[in-house]
Write a structure and sequence with these properties.
The protein has 9 helices and no strands. By secondary structure, the protein is mainly alpha-helical.
């Protein structure tokens, strides 16, 4: 009984800590570093995932799956290429980080249900995008200097585009999920419009292309599966065509 309650408390703790931590990490930057936006983010992401693995250390195991095969293939190839790497230390640190991410991903897949992982993604996207827009508005209001390398709190312009490729579909899904709650729809719509506006002024073509390809791939998968178009599919179509 104590083991079960401990498992539940650890799960709930992770589901609360992750969204809050990711919201902070996404917008974290410190001018004392040369790469003021990148270095602090990677540092705290490594710390966060390390704590996550430590909390679930009793559940770490190797299981046969397609994800495990892909992970070990990437890890093997990284170790092989390390022998002719131009910077051995950087290559080694990348391999250690890759191993950490692989273990954390494995724990997330095998110890959390699909609903828990979806809620984790949606809550992280909602909270992080909201904090992002608030900080960006404050920085523009007080006149914080910006450039292509530090255009938003995320940092480099293209880095923001990578994050937007996660936030925008998530916000579209939130619009459908909370469609019966007016306040939630308004909040999600406000966040979505804010992110789309930042995407517009950033002129990140790769993100726009990525979003376009994602809806094409999604439509192709729907046609292949030969399933009747559900309200979930319609919400994704609406979100992507709206963009």
């Amino acid at each position: 009984m104590n083991t079960l309650s401990s498992k539940i408390s650890t799960t709930r703790l992770a589901l609360w800590i992750f969204p809050i931590s990711l919201a902070v990490i996404t917008n974290l930057h410190w001018d004392n570093y040369f790469y003021s936006h990148d270095v602090p983010k990677w540092l705290f992401i490594d710390i966060l995932l390390s704590l996550f693995v430590i909390l679930h250390r009793d559940k770490v195991s190797i299981r046969r799956s397609h994800c495990s095969l892909l992970f070990f293939s990437l890890l093997y190839w990284s170790l092989v290429t390390l022998f002719w790497s131009s910077h051995f230390y950087t290559g080694l640190s990348f391999i250690i980080r890759l191993a950490l991410y692989g273990v954390a991903f494995n724990l997330l897949v095998w110890n959390y249900s699909v609903d828990e992982r979806i809620n984790l993604l949606l809550s992280s996207s909602l909270l992080a995008s909201g904090v992002f827009l608030i900080i960006l508005a404050i920085e523009r209001k007080i006149g914080v200097p910006f450039s292509n390398g530090a255009f938003t709190p995320i940092g480099f312009t293209n880095n923001a585009g990578h994050v937007f490729n996660i936030w925008i579909p998530s916000l579209c899904f939130c619009l459908w999920k909370f469609r019966n709650k007016a306040w939630a729809v308004l909040a999600c719509l406000a966040l979505l419009l804010g992110i789309v506006y930042v995407l517009y002024i950033s002129q990140i073509r790769a993100t726009t292309i990525g979003l376009g390809l994602s809806i094409c791939l999604f439509a192709m998968l729907v046609l292949i599966s030969k399933r009747q178009r559900s309200s979930v599919v319609q919400s994704f179509y609406f979100g992507h065509f709206f963009l």
